[in-house]
Amino acid sequence: MKIGILAIQGDYEAHARALDRLGVPHAYVRRPDDLVDVDGIILPGGESTTHLKVMTEEGLFGALKQFAADGGSFFGTCAGAILLARQVSGPAQASLGLLDISVLRNGYGRQLASDVHMGSTKLSETPIEMVFIRAPIIDSVGKGIEVLAEYEGRPVLVQQDRFLASTFHPELTDDLTTHRHFLDLTIQ
Length: 188
Prior knowledge:
There is one protein chain. The chain has helices spanning 12-21, 48-57, 60-69, 79-84, 177-187, and strands spanning 3-6, 26-29, 40-43, 73-77, 85-89, 99-104, 115-121, 124-132, 137-141, 146-151, 154-160, 163-166. With 188 residues, the protein is α/β, with parallel strands linked by helices. The chain has one domain (3-187): Class I glutamine amidotransferase (GATase) domain (Rossmann fold), CATH 3.40.50.880. The strands form 3 sheets. The chain has a 7-stranded mixed β-sheet. Strand 10 (146-151) and strand 11 (154-160) form a beta hairpin.
């Protein structure tokens, strides 16, 4: 298995370090041909509008949609969750539309203040560390969405088939639970 990491901006290197700790080969994705031979892709945090601009300019937007149609798995963190959402508001923007969630870009206070919390999840018997940095809000979920973790009564980690999204940054912690779960989705 080899995982691609969208390397436009954001802390994509932190995701690479998490995959290194798990012993999983990875490659940075900046152009469509970088998707060759990867089984899953991580869409890191950062600024979703910047990601979209570069993805469109480099031809990645369509290539990522095709990667999904061909069976590739996705894991979006923070801005990556926005990119995966079916609908984005606050303000509205384009997205890949792969995950049946509605995301409010400027949510908690108009975004969740940068903070660290311990939270329960369906992925682990013990709480995991959740690092929120101006996190978006998952405003609604479709019928096919499994909510794997919540914070303050709102979903913060969701899954639909082989698509996983978190509004927090698991790559900024020592806990590899969420990355392991993504790898399990990718192997299926």
